[in-house]
């Protein structure tokens, strides 16, 4: 009955549904990248989102100031979780050592803010797609030095996710794929990908990280074909490489529809195998053929997704980017 445009109309986190509180069925999280690192840039134009706290871009002070703004925002929303890429929260520096030192400083502040607000880390991940070194992949890159750099970056990202009490760690292989089969050895690249993930599993066990490893399927973009094409493809890859017991899936319905499936298809496929770990709850635009990460505006799609959540318990972050153009009355 609230007249507040920003108030929940149907979600009451303390209400009991089928023996469980809504907040336990739907563990909403703010995804740091779209919410605080998105600028409104697209293929045809530069940034349209001017953030008042971005006054010293790239500095440690700015990284920490942005983080404080984010936690203030999340506290006002009343969400219990947040998620991040390593390069979202800490600006990459000239060397890996310097970058890791910067990340450590920002993580100290993040841990302090988590303790002050009670907001928890749902999952962390490494950005293995933004830097030019990953143009031809990270784990599947033909250059061994890039593979090694990516492994070192994931090692550190797992460490800081553990430090922040992360409940999961996500692998999204946005550049693990190919643009052309003429210069691609798929068998070798998939073998390298499996080796990479096995190294991560071994390190997780070595440091005692108890969080769940998740893989996020996507059929394409930025590569023409991504090896983590859809839920069935990923599950088959995990079985074939002895990794099935170590991973669950993080499903993004916008990715599912890009693969030519129904909105909720991959959620059901993952759930039937007991491998539904998390849902990035967004959708694309039927008039645009790429990953737009928009708010779910279709009640049928939202209801279908929530029905699966009722049948199979799963955390549900909101991975949605802000609109490039502000709304107007």
Ordered list of secondary-structure elements with their pairings:
Layout: E1 16-17, E2 20-21, H1 22-25, E3 29-31, H2 32-37, H3 60-77, E4 81-85, H4 86-89, H5 96-117, E5 120-125, H6 144-163, E6 168-171, E7 177-178, H7 186-207, E8 212-215, E9 225-226, H8 231-240, E10 247-251, H9 253-258, H10 265-272, E11 276-279, H11 299-311
Parallel strand pairs: 3-4, 4-5, 5-6, 6-8, 8-10, 10-11
Antiparallel strand pairs: 1-2, 7-9
Report strand %: 5-15%
Strand order of the largest sheet: 3-4-5-6-8-10-11
Q: Mean pLDDT across all residues, rounded?
A: 91
Would you count the extended β strands for me?
11
Low-confidence stretches: 323-329
Q: What's the helical proportion of residues?
A: 40-55%
Shape: globular
What gyration radius follows from the Cα positions, in whole Å? 19 Å
Count of individual helical segments: 11
Q: What is the makeup of the main sheet?
A: 7 strands, parallel
Overall SS class: alpha/beta
Q: Give the helices and strands as they follow along the chain.
A: EEHEHHEHHEHEEHEEHEHHEH
How many angstroms does the end-to-end distance come to?
22 Å
């Amino acid at each position: 009955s609230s007249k507040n445009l920003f108030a929940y109309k149907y979600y009451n986190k303390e209400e009991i549904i089928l023996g469980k509180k809504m907040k336990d069925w739907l563990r909403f999280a703010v995804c740091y990248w779209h919410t605080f690192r998105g600028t409104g840039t697209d293929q045809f134009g530069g940034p349209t989102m001017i953030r008042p706290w971005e006054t010293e871009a790239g500095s440690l002070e700015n990284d920490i100031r942005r983080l404080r703004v984010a936690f203030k925002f999340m506290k006002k929303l009343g969400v219990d979780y947040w998620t991040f890429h390593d390069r979202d929260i800490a600006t990459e520096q000239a060397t890996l050592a310097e970058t890791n030192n910067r990340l450590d400083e920002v993580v100290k502040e993040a841990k302090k803010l988590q303790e002050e607000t009670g907001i928890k880390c749902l999952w962390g991940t490494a950005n293995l797609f933004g830097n030019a070194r990953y143009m031809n992949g990270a784990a599947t890159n033909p250059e061994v030095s890039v593979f090694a750099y990516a492994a070192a970056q994931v090692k550190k990202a797992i460490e800081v996710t553990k430090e922040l009490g992360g409940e999961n760690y996500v692998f999204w292989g946005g550049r693990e794929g190919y643009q052309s089969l003429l210069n691609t050895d798929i068998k070798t690249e998939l073998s390298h990908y499996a080796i990479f993930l096995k190294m991560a599993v071994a390190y997780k066990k070595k440091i005692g990280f108890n969080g769940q490893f998740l893989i996020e399927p996507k059929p394409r973009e930025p590569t023409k074909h991504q090896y983590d094409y859809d839920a069935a493809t990923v599950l088959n890859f995990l079985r074939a490489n002895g990794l099935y017991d170590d991973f669950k899936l993080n499903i993004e319905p916008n990715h599912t529809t890009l693969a030519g499936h129904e909105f909720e298809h991959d959620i059901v496929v993952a759930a039937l195998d007991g491998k539904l770990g998390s849902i990035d709850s967004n959708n694309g635009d039927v008039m645009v053929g790429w990953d737009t990460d928009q708010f779910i505006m279709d009640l049928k799609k939202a209801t279908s997704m929530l029905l699966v959540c009722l049948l199979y318990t799963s955390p549900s972050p909101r991975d949605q980017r802000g609109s490039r153009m502000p709304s107007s009355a």
